[in-house]
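Justification of resources, computational component.

The compute hours requested in this renewal are based largely on the per-chain cost of generating structure records like the one below. Each record pairs the submitted sequence with a full structure-token output. That output is archived, and it is also reused by downstream analysis tasks.
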Amino acid sequence: MPKKTISGTAMAQGRVTYMLELVRGSSHIASTRKPETLNHAIAEVLEGFHQVHGMPGLGVFRELLAQDVERRGHRGAASAVRSFSPGGVDEADIRLLTLTDS
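The structure output for this chain reads:
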């Protein structure tokens, strides 16, 4: 299945709409030092986005987040953001993240 591309307009609108979440999330993810904490940080950021904004916009947010993490000099972490969950985080992933953090 070909990867879905995100329009430039959607990316620009997402950057403005999710500015605060992007700054916080990219800082949190870039500050991690171990693979376990990196995965946990990515899960926290995506779960937080889902709780505030729901599923719409998650693809745009995730790509913008990866770009911002990469700009901070963390290419591996940016790649991990992009590939965190095939097809994005779905409702079952969110429930699992919530259960494991309780």
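The first helix runs from residue 8 to 17. Residues 10-101 form one domain.
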